[in-house]
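User: Structure with adenosine-5'-diphosphate, tokens only please.
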Amino acid sequence: KSRRHWLMRVAPLEGSTRLIRFVDRSEARAAEQMRVDFVANASHELRTPLATLIGYTETLREQSDEVDPATRDRFLSVVHDEALRMQRVVEDLISLSRIEAEKFTTPTDAVALEPLIDRALESERRTAQKRGSELVRDVAERLPPVAGDSGQILQLLDNLLSNALRYGEPGTPVTVSARTDGSMVRLSVSDCGDGIAPEHIARVTERFYRVDTSRSRSLGGTGLGLSIVKHIVERHRGRLSIDSIVGKGTTIHVLLPIAVS
Ligand code: ADP
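Assistant:
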């Protein structure tokens, strides 16, 4: 266990009042380490597809006479797929930094959830069809609006739904439900799939943390989806919880505060 270093600053204020501030240096060090790891992970995530792009385009350019049309098409589709992968990583990194930049402002717009749930379901419909998964919508009547940022709530729903489809067993349903829970609205997205082992549950919301990196990559994951969800929930003063059984499936719950009218 790391030793904690405490720094105490005593600054004189007006009159006899004194401000005593405790700064936990081990926390500051952990935050710095996280930043360093994040930059290293992000660079690594982009370096791999970039190397593929360079290798394949060099071959196409330098040996263009020897490459037959079928091989050329195959190379071009690899190049395209890798470029799309880089685009997804960069888009997610931009989202993450935007959400983080806004973390001290709590969104207060009254947001109706049904239209957002419908839009999220619509945008995943094709993927669901390809995987033979039914999308089930289970929304309570007269759901109150939540206090939030509609763009970010849509992004949260998109990320949870695409994970449920990605890690759900093909042919099994994915359910989105929404109902009131005290002063909050509970949104839940469930799948019947891989599940997440208990030792991974606490870590899957970390940036670039994946249970199985090659599986996530081959299914188009960036490793950032759940950390984006976590940041959105925190900004909304909401709560996130994960229920999962390995080999059975996962339900991710998000509680968002009901808007004050
Ligand atoms: P990714 O882009 O890899 O899906 P996420 O941040 O969205 O990244 O999720 C992190 C990891 O958590 C995933 O790589 C996967 O291992 C696990 N995970 C997320 N959602 C689910 C789910 N619904 N079922 C099983 N595992 C999941």
